[in-house]
Amino acid sequence: MSELTIRDLRDTDVDAWSELYRGYRAFYLLADDDAIVQRTWGWLQAREYGLRGIVAEDEHGELVALAHLRLFARPSSGALGLYLDDLFTSADARGRGVGGRMLERCAELATESGATIVRWITAVDNTTARSLYDAKGRATSWVTYEMDAAFVG
């Protein structure tokens, strides 16, 4: 995509961002949930939890991609990293270099923030995205785990 602007999320992007974010959630087979969309938008607008949103805007002013980022401490190296929580490109913009440009902007933002690395995860079967990720980054030997939070009650 020749005419592409990657910029920070703006208050006026709410509708276009919401559509992209719903597309992201649908891609990962997550339920369409207004409360989650609104909560995430609120976090991005307030930069709660260090969450920052960037978007790619095409030559017509349409948003075609989103990314959500946050800094994290890396105690083992005494450095900061930039975590890419979400990256999504609209179906009609895929295969046109948008994802690669978004990753490059993430690397620039990491450098600007004093971070030494950009880190993210993806689904093992997300082969299209993984081919881009393999070209821009490197898969690690680490395995991701998660555990439900314990509730007292």
Automatic annotation (TrEMBL):
Keyword annotations from UniProtKB, A to Z: Acyltransferase, Transferase
A Pfam family the protein falls into: Acetyltransf_1
Chain ranges of the N-acetyltransferase domain: 4-153
GO molecular function term, any single one: acyltransferase activity, transferring groups other than amino-acyl groups
The keyword Acyltransferase belongs to this UniProt entry's keyword annotation: yes
Keyword flag Acyltransferase: yes
PANTHER family, per database record: ACETYLTRANSFERASE, AMINOALKYLPHOSPHONATE N-ACETYLTRANSFERASE-RELATED-RELATED
Protein's UniProt name: GNAT family N-acetyltransferase
